[in-house]
Write a structure and sequence with these properties.
The chain is mainly alpha-helical. It is built from 24 helices and no strands. The protein is globular, with a radius of gyration of 22 Å. The C terminus is likely disordered.
Length: about 425
């Protein structure tokens, strides 16, 4: 049974996706946590270090230029792999350029370079998400998400942990040059990756690339169902995000040390997330996306109640370990189903734009809606806060019967329609 479940991972596509996931995750910490560590060792003012969080702005607004990646096709490697190679080359140059700078002497230039890294990284994410959407058939989507996330997490460990260890043994510029060199892994993966099959023409104009993705989505899904899907995207992981956002302050106030939290939450929790995502990808290939959204969303909501038990028990190490592992494992399950659902919604002609817009809605939920979580916890106390986080997960689940009923076919159809006026035939995987 297990062999059949995990057989979906045996594909050249999966090999490409794990390395592309690594390339996608590699730049993130180089403009945030790791860069902050370098700046701190160089005695940069804390206020300036804090302001450097603004260089991450391109990640929040990448949907603005995503139509360019749908409209224009590079002269090599096709529409998806070509853009991957271009952005990865830009990242190598920008990350290497950062190694030639000193935070104490050229802070403004460092900020500009970091902004370029974030821009190329966000653009690489657009291309990588579109490539993943275009290359995977519905039964492969969960597994594809899982291996991509695995590669991404390995990259975060590389730039978040390994880079700091290396910085104790070599100058920071050399660390950044080494990280720039690791981006070659992504370039090789983009060069060798199988090319998505495209039987249609890209949008003929930039205006069409901006407008038609919206028209296409609501024409296929209907106005009411389409609107419900967008609301669902905002709500599906809201309860999980509320609990996760306040989990560290909760654990500290409960009496656990920073070492306890770093070792269990940062170590075991990360492993649990990876295992959950891989397991979710394997089971999704058998259950289908609809049923996975129901089951994994339910597990994701119930996992918040483990924090409720810990809030009532107090400082209890065994239950703290169990809580973190349960919550991260279930979050991984939910992530596998949720991102596969994103891909199932995209018309492959506009996958860069549509996926970027959907992920921006998700980011709104994860970054904006949870902002009052601290005030809510302060007003209610921890036990009631975790009850509320459980209840916050239910509205998203309640929307599933509208567009993802349990009794539907196991794999929802991914419709690929030609542009209005096009002579290209429909292409349904």
């Amino acid at each position: 049974m297990l062999v059949r479940l995990f057989k979906v991972f045996e594909s050249p596509k999966m090999a490409a996706l794990i390395f592309l996931g690594f390339a996608s995750g590699l730049p993130l910490f180089l403009t945030s946590q790791t860069l902050q560590a370098w700046m701190t060792t160089e005695k940069v003012d804390l206020a300036a270090i804090g302001l450097f969080s603004l260089v991450a702005t391109p990640y929040s607004f990448k949907f603005l230029w995503s139509p360019l990646l749908d409209r224009y096709v590079p002269p090599f490697l096709g529409r998806r792999r070509g853009w991957l190679l271009i952005t990865q080359l830009g990242l190598i140059l920008a990350i290497a350029a950062m190694g030639f700078q000193n935070p104490r002497d050229s802070l403004n230039l460092l900020a500009v370079t970091a902004l370029f890294i974030a821009f190329f990284s966000a653009t690489q994410d657009i291309a990588a998400d579109a490539y993943r959407t275009d290359i995977l058939d519905p039964p492969e989507m969960g597994a594809g998400v899982a291996v991509f996330v695995l590669g991404y997490r390995i990259a975060l460990l590389t730039t978040g942990s390994l880079a700091l260890i290396l910085a104790d043994r070599m100058p920071w510029p050399q660390v950044y040059w080494l990280m720039a060199g690791l981006m070659v892994i992504g370039m090789v993966a983009a060069w060798l990756a199988p090319d998505p099959e495209e039987t249609f023409q890209p949008p003929e104009t930039l205006f069409a690339a901006i407008v038609e993705p919206f028209q296409d989505f609501f024409q296929r899904k209907g106005l009411v169902s389409g609107a419900m899907i967008l609301v669902f995207i905002v709500l599906y992981k809201l309860g999980d995000a509320l609990a996760n956002n306040m989990s560290t302050p909760f654990l500290l106030q409960t009496g656990f040390s920073q070492t306890d939290i770093g070792a269990i939450k940062g170590g075991m929790g990360l492993v649990a997330t990876i295992v959950g995502t891989l397991a979710g990808g394997a089971f999704l290939s058998r259950l289908g996306i609809n049923r996975s959204l129901w089951l994994f969303g339910g597990f994701q909501a119930i996992s918040n109640l483990a924090y409720l038990v810990l809030a009532n028990l107090g400082k209890n190490y065994p239950w703290m370990v169990l809580t973190i592992n349960i919550e991260n494992f279930c979050a991984g399950l939910g992530t596998a189903a949720f991102l596969a659902f994103f891909m199932s919604l995209c018309n492959r002609q506009f996958s860069a734009t549509q996926y970027a817009l959907l992920s921006s809605l998700y980011a709104f939920s994860q970054n904006i809606l949870i902002a009052p979580a601290g005030l809510l916890a302060k007003l209610t106390g921890w036990p009631l806060f975790f009850v509320i986080s459980f209840l916050a997960a239910l509205p998203g689940l309640a929307l599933l019967p509208v567009f993802a009923p349990w009794q539907d076919r196991l794999e929802p159809e991914v419709i690929i329609e030609p542009r209005p006026g096009s002579t290209d035939p429909d292409c349904n995987p």
